[in-house]
Amino acid sequence: MDEADGIRVNARLTVPRSELVLKATRSGGPGGQHVNTSSTRIELVWDITQSAVLEEAQRARLLEKLAARLDGEGRLRIVAQEERSQLRNREAALARFATTVRRALVVPRPRKPTKPTKASKERRLDAKKRRGKLKRDRRTTEDG
Question: Looking at domain 6-105, does it have CATH number 3.90.1150.10?
Fold first, then answer.
């Protein structure tokens, strides 16, 4: 997933580490004295609009698919603070970054419209007839 020069997102895209901004800050939440003194929370920021490795189609797709996760300037922000170790949080943030970008770049196959088969049409009509007969049989007759 990550190499010395960059983060491998998929076979066609590797984001150079120089484009990623990693910042360590103090993590919140419970944890006693240790949590108040160590900066274990990792914040990863990647500017999609300024990235040199993206093709225009990839950039447009990322901006569309990740719109809810971007700030006003088109930067993707990922935070990891689950672990007590800064190193493990950094690895988690990088892994989450690669997964997020990889999923956003997937282009779904177009759906091919299909017609129902003759057998499925017959099954549907038979079910409708049975249901109609059941309802018809429930009715009270005027004789009764």
Answer: no
